[in-house]
Design brief:
The protein is an alpha+beta fold. Helix content is about 30%, strand content about 35%.
C-alpha cells in the first residue's frame, strides 16, 4: 500500500475559479469562487439551470478559456494562466471532448473520423489505423469502421464521436450534453453503456447535463450549480437524500417544500399541525423549510390518527405508467405530491377523496429558511405547474 506522499494528486484541482465577462458597461459574474477536486477515474456530473455557470466551468476545465481569478491544475500541471497556443497543446494531449452535436465529417468513414485526432498529433498510416480500430472496438463499432455517418443510427454516431475522443487516451474526457440529441429510449440504453465503458477504460469523465435522472444514474458524484457557484457536490444518494439548500432540494428531482416554524427540539409547526422532523437541521428554531420527497408521502383513509399526519383532499390524479402521482390539497392550504408504484387496478384515489397524509419523521428534512420566501415559492410553484403540464 502506497503512502500518502506516493499517491498521485487529483487529476483536476480547481481553487477559487471565477470568470467575469463584460457586456457593454456591465460585468457578468459567470463563475464565482468555485472549488472542485476530481480523482482519477471518477465520473462527475454537473447539473444546473440555464445560466447557472456549468458551461463556463466546462470551458475553463477544458482549457478553452482562462479564469479571471483562481488556479486550475490538470494532471498535476498548473494550466490556468497558459497562452492560447499552450492551452491548445494541453487540450490535444490531455483532454477529449464529446458534444451534443457529434461534428462527424459526413463523407468520411467511421475509421477516418476517429483517426482525425491522431493525424493532428502526428500519428499516421498503419499505427493510426490500429489505434482507431481499437477505439471503435471499445465502443462496439469495430464492424462499422467503413460506414459513413449517414449509414449509422444516432446512437452509433454518438459512439463514433466517443471513440474519437478516446483514441488518444486522454486524462480527462469532457462531455457536454452528449445524449441530448437522442430519443428517450435510446438515451436510457446509452446511459448504461456509457457508464460501463467509463468503468472499463478508467478515464475521468466530467459530464454536463440538464437531465437530472441521467446525472443520478451515471455519476459517482454530482455537482449542482446555481448563479455561478456549486451549491452542493456529493454522491447521488447524498445530494438527493440530503440536500443542503432549498435550491438543491427543489432543483434535483421533485420536492414538496412547505414553510414552517421550528421549536428548536425537532418539531416543526405547519399551520395548525405539528411534525416531528428526523433529518436535516431538525434542531433549528424559527422560520424553516420542510422538505419531503413525493415517494416518501403516504396516503391513508380519512380519519386515520397518529403522529405526523395532516388531513387533505385529493385534487388531481396523474397516471404516469410505472407510477401514480396524486396531488393533495392540505388542510392548512398548501399542496403536495404523493407518488406510489403502479401495482395494477387503476389509481387508488379519486379526485375529491378526503385522505390522511402521513409524513414519516425520517422523510421530513428541515432546512433553515434564509431566502426570500415569496420569490422562492413563486418559482417553485411555476416549476411544479410546468412539470404537471408536461405530464
Amino acid at each position: 500500500m502506497s503512502s500518502p506522499s506516493e499517491q498521485r494528486p487529483p487529476v483536476i484541482r480547481a481553487e477559487g475559479l471565477s470568470k467575469d465577462y463584460r457586456v457593454g458597461r456591465n460585468v457578468v459574474h459567470a463563475l464565482r469562487n468555485v472549488d472542485l477536486s476530481v480523482e482519477r477515474g471518477e465520473f462527475v456530473a454537473i447539473v444546473g439551470a440555464s445560466g447557472s455557470g456549468k458551461s463556463t466551468l466546462m470551458n475553463l476545465l477544458g482549457c478553452l478559456d482562462t479564469p479571471t481569478e483562481g488556479r486550475y491544475r490538470l494532471d498535476g500541471a498548473l494550466v490556468s494562466r497558459l497562452s492560447r497556443d499552450q492551452r491548445a497543446l494541453v487540450r490535444n494531449r490531455k483532454l477529449g471532448f464529446v458534444f451534443q452535436s457529434f461534428n462527424l465529417l459526413p463523407r468520411a468513414t467511421s475509421l477516418k473520423n476517429v483517426m482525425l485526432p491522431l493525424l493532428y498529433a502526428g500519428i499516421v498510416g498503419k499505427p493510426a489505423e490500429r489505434l482507431a480500430y481499437e477505439a471503435l472496438n471499445q465502443v462496439g463499432l469495430g464492424d462499422r469502421a467503413r460506414h459513413r455517418p449517414l449509414e449509422l443510427s444516432g446512437g452509433q454516431q454518438q459512439r463514433v464521436a466517443l471513440a474519437r475522443a478516446l483514441v488518444l487516451n486522454p486524462a480527462v474526457l469532457l462531455l457536454d450534453e452528449p445524449l441530448g440529441a437522442l430519443d428517450a429510449k435510446l438515451r436510457k440504453a446509452l446511459q448504461i453503456e456509457l457508464k460501463a465503458l467509463q468503468e472499463e477504460v478508467g478515464i475521468t469523465f466530467i459530464y454536463v447535463t440538464h437531465d437530472q435522472e441521467e446525472a443520478l444514474t451515471m455519476s459517482d458524484r454530482l455537482a449542482v450549480m446555481s448563479n455561478g457557484r456549486i451549491e452542493q457536490i456529493g454522491s447521488p444518494v447524498e445530494v438527493y437524500e440530503e440536500p443542503s439548500t432549498a435550491y438543491v432540494a427543489d432543483f434535483l428531482g421533485v420536492s414538496n417544500m412547505m414553510r414552517g416554524t421550528g421549536d428548536g427540539h425537532g418539531r416543526v409547526q405547519i399551520g395548525d399541525f405539528q411534525l416531528i422532523a428526523g433529518r436535516g437541521e431538525s434542531g433549528a428554531e424559527g422560520r424553516v423549510r420542510v422538505v419531503v420527497r413525493p415517494e416518501r408521502v403516504h396516503l391513508d383513509e380519512h380519519g386515520t390518527t397518529g403522529e405526523n399526519r395532516i388531513p387533505g383532499m385529493v385534487e388531481r390524479v396523474l397516471y404516469v405508467g410505472a407510477t401514480i402521482q396524486v396531488i393533495v390539497h392540505l388542510a392548512h392550504g398548501e399542496t403536495l405530491q404523493a407518488w406510489m408504484q403502479n401495482r395494477g387496478g387503476g389509481p387508488p384515489w379519486a379526485q375529491g377523496t378526503p385522505v390522511s397524509v402521513h409524513l414519516p419523521p425520517d422523510a421530513v428534512r428541515v432546512l433553515v429558511d434564509d431566502t426570500d420566501a415569496g420569490e422562492e415559492d413563486a418559482a417553485a410553484s411555476g416549476r411544479q405547474e410546468g412539470e404537471l403540464a408536461q405530464r
